[in-house]
# Entry
Amino acid sequence: MSVVSETPLKITFRRYKDGDSKAVRFNQQIFQASHTYKCPTYIQSTPPCQGSCPAGEDIRGYLAIVRGTEKPPVGADGKPTMPWQEYAWRRLTEANPFPSVMGRVCPAPCETGCNRNEVEDHVGINSVEHFLGEYAIANKLKFNKPAQTTGKKVAILGAGPAGLSCAYQLALKGHEVTVFDEHEFLGGMMRYGIPGFRTPREVLDAEIQRILDLGVKTRMKTRVGTDITMEQIRKDFDAVFLGMGAQAGRALPIADSTAPNVVTATAFLKAFNDGRLQHVGKRVVVVGGGDTSIDVATVARRLGHIEHAKPTDAELAIAGRLAHDVADISAKQGAEVTLTSIFNIDKMQANKHEIEQALAEGIHIIGSLAPVGLVRDANGRATALRVVKCEAKMAGGKLEIKNIEGSEHDIEADLIVSAIGQAVDFTGLEQFNNGKGAVSTDRNYVVNGQPGVFAGGDVIRPHLLTTAIGHGSIAADGIHHYMNGQELEKRPKIDAHQFDLIRKLAEKGLEPKENHEPMRGTCDSNAAVHNFDNRSDRYIIPHDKLFLGHFSYVARNQRAVTTLDKESALGNFQDRLGVLDEKQTVAEAKRCMSCGMCFECDNCVVYCPQTAVYRVKKTESTLGRYVATDYDKCIGCHICADVCPTGYIQMGLGE
# Structure
């Protein structure tokens, strides 16, 4: 007896579900459809990836360039003015000047929102961004300087992602920008918060240098509020942006949390990134659950401990009163690192991939534990963290923690790191403190009651690096309008960079021309873009508006990740994340479903029973104007909209 084995077909779309017994006939629907008097119109919508991106990147746009749907502009010689890689990078960096950094460390909320999750798996947006960032560095690409300067001057307080993003956008608009920062180097939390094996310093420096090459000035080791007064800043500059970040750590939420060897995550990471901290104690306990706590734990694992080191060495290095001898590295042994969180491991806020990597490195992660006290020795140093089992949940936007009585126990520690959040240092800038340890702004990021002063990033609310980049970009628009004496625009509901059809038409010399009366309609003129509506500023297209049956199963192209174990992590500070090659990058971009924008599949042309839908002449077509409809032939049968994979065609004309 022979056994036949079948390879199961990976289904991405099913017209009929389990239990359906009645066939659905579309012929009557087609015959009756014309009674609605609706004909197809072309609707540009925002894809959920862009709606989920805090930096507001035109994700669909640069993926379309990478996949080849959108072509670079052509010069007078008929050849592309730049390679597609550069064109995609320039589209990306209209919103975010740090693609190589963000391609490594951003938790990619865009991928969580991706409609392709309804097919098989999200598009690897982050990996494409990473590739473009690396290409730009390898090919020494630069930003284009503005042709004219305005003579307006802006002071940026803080050289982190928000401040540098704002400086970048303002410099592109021709303004004179000066960045003030109390540190020696630019980068803020990208340099002093995230460890170098996640953001290689040569990569960070390259992307910052591009911004400086636009003419941005810097005044390092200068803290506004102490080294120079805010009054002087307001006198010397036309506008101010507050982007100081939240670089002060929060202490453990327990009574009497002070001890020499109990430190904050920001202090710990700054000491490491400054090079002062070269080893830690034998037993390190990290309290947190977010990405910062994972960074602390993985750094501690790599630093390890030295058998005969003084117990006070680590805290003195963190406090800046001691620098470890690098020669001690050869004598290192692995440290026992424990990370506690009030949430279960599956509910922790940290990136799931980073949690998996930490576990692989032998870091003990224990969920549902809340700190309640310190155990001290005779010298006042902590010897253990006292914890209690708990149940934590978010209710109505507030955190509720219920401790379980009788479950207290101690976790022995030589060093305890609090990674439960960050705080803003308002020394000398108390006038901007809203009483809750933050700065209050409107949607244009104007500081309440302070015209000419804008803010963004962690000073508003500690969040992602990419969120800070988005704040800086939006604030730059507001500063530009303010200095030009214009009313600040009402921000769109969906505040993201979008595909611009008019700009695309202009690249081909097809932009609408000015027409004069008398006119009888515009059907035979180029005074308007016909049967097209851009709803990107207010409408995110959901997956149920797409024809998912068009898309077959295609596995995601994943970057190579170096996974370390307990032994190999010690002393390993190499970049763990590989980059896709060009072929893989193009293949991954082709997995994009181009939600809300035509990607030239020809479904509508092929399936139209009236041959009403047709391809636009090549000399007159561009992305977004690939097909058109002959409304003398159209009967409103809806088939073109039903088979449109991207939801670009909607039935509405005639309403």
Q: What stands out?
A: The radius of gyration is 28 Å. The first helix runs from residue 27 to 33.
